[in-house]
Sequence to fold (693 residues):
Amino acid sequence: MSGMLNAQIDRLAEMPRGAAGPDQDGFYHHSGQLLLPTRGGVLRSMTDTPDRKDIMKLLRQLQNAGSVQQVNDKDDAWRRILSGIAQGSEATALAERFSLEDGHERLAMVFRPCGSAGLLPADQLRAVAPLDDDEYIVTLDPETTVLLKKCEAGETSDDDMEFALALRETLESETGIQTVIGIGTGGKTAARMAESCAEALQALRIGRMYHDGEQVYLYEKLLLERILAELPAHTAAKYRDLFYTPAVRKLMDREMTETVYTFFRQDLNIADTARQLFIHRNTLIYRLDKIMRVTGLDLRRFDDAVLFRILTELPDTEQN
Amino acid sequence: MASVSLQHIYKVYTGGVTAVSDFTLDIEDKEFIVLVGPSGCGKSTTLRMVAGLEEISDGELYIGDKLVNDVAPKDRDIAMVFQNYALYPHMTVYDNMAFGLKLRKTPKEEIKRRVEEAAKILDIAHLLNRKPKALSGGQRQRVALGRAIVREPKVFLFDEPLSNLDAKLRVAMRTEITKLHQRLQTTFIYVTHDQTEAMTMASRIVVMKDGVIQQVDTPQNLYDYPTNEFVAGFIGSPQMNFFDVTLAKEGQDVVAVFGDNKIVIPASKVAKFIDESYIGKEVVMGIRPENIDDSAEALEASNGTKIRVDVEVTELMGSETYLYLSTTGKEGNIIARVDPRTASRAGDKIEVAFDASRLHFFDKETEKTILIK
Fold:
């Protein structure tokens, strides 16, 4: 049994770059492999199957037995909780031992480097971020840094977005490091912080899929995208093919796409959209009429606009 | 205050994609230079190389007399204003403006002096104790500018700072930034994809495409003497009309023929052809919308420069009207900018006159102008 396990599950010193995760069980996925961060390294299975997942969970439990006593500081405790190494009773024990649950609401902001200037060390982020002592910065892996930011009374998700953009800008101008940021929702317990971190990671993944080029992605503002991303690939493909006839593909060039999305952002208001695009309202009406002729959808009507938005945002599995 | 010199700068990404190629430009002290071009042309990459946010693959960058290729961004004595003008929502305007200086351990008294001075310049002194939420879009943009001003840099870098503002505010901030340049007397390097911004603010404009400089000149010269078809089409709104024409000799005249249309080119213009061998060949002819007229006076004065067109759409803009016209030998619409009191209506068949002294001609293969200035 042990020999068989050794042949199929081994250990890496660190998480490979580009690994996706963690999923809800704390696993990462990379090139068909299943990866699980544990104390002292990363367990790797060469196949990504449910039974292999169960075996690795068991191995982790055996390894982590008694590990609470070996954690040295708050940052390490948070790292274990956020990465899923410590779950359930172990996470609760860590939270108690290091007083991680102090009654403050916090949320997770996940930073990933995206430019050519290199990785983002936690101490660089700490040096330029306007943070209190009880706001934590945790390095999950070389490419993933998490900020657990306190939520103040009256703050909205727009404030979180603004804070993240400002911090991103400070980081870039002070260190040259460019990042993209995912933001999860708030909570008070350590377990909720692990969920918030997973939400922030999901926001990054889905946000970049649908709105590539943006700098900050808020989990709670990506509801439509999350719903669409969960559609089975064949269902999404069926409706995409139905909508994207050759005529529609030809019609939806860059200019037309910008026109439609500006129209949506301006809440289907003709005058505001024309102003925003620097075009005459007749030109805008001409374009909307053209879309109606080709797609049969009149974007000035709410129902048609919603349908258009959904159809054009269906995940393109080929492209992604 | 400083000059900036970019000498044969290249940016080549891993994988071999060249974003900027052989970029050479000398920017004088106190100049307001605007880099303009379509998205992906390399303008932001160039700015980011000046800022130190992108590594320079090859070439030399000087700020003042100092070679700064390997100098860290924070040590280049530059300040950058980004597109998002994001402010920390939990800090006051004062703290937002002071934050960068605090990171640099600037003494408190010095921070106070600089913030108050910048606030005065930007007319936001009365807002210093407010939180960003209590500011309008324009005021927030000014705070973002203030954050750059307090650093007292040698060079200001602007990366599409107005692109997130609505149209009205964008126009207002354009004027503000021009005034700020006059007041600060510092070198400004400004990136935009909006040619109107470039034309209204710059002392010189650099037009870029595919990572290569197309032309560097004053706004007026770019408009009047574009060196190639790309610049001619990019600068000006609505953009220049282009026609595939054949230049032919008819008696003493040289004419441009397209479809059933013929335009007589004035001798003064023919004299400016860099090479007479173009006569008899196919070239690209360009004319700006304001140089096409449907008025009775223009038609009467025209000397062999009229063509027959169908009016497809008219757009009354208040101070002018755009006519969208079609004719033989021209794919797509011709746009004419005419008097708002024009009698032309959609569906009409009319004549329009070209101001032939304002015609542009380009080589069909190289797309370069075939006229001398």
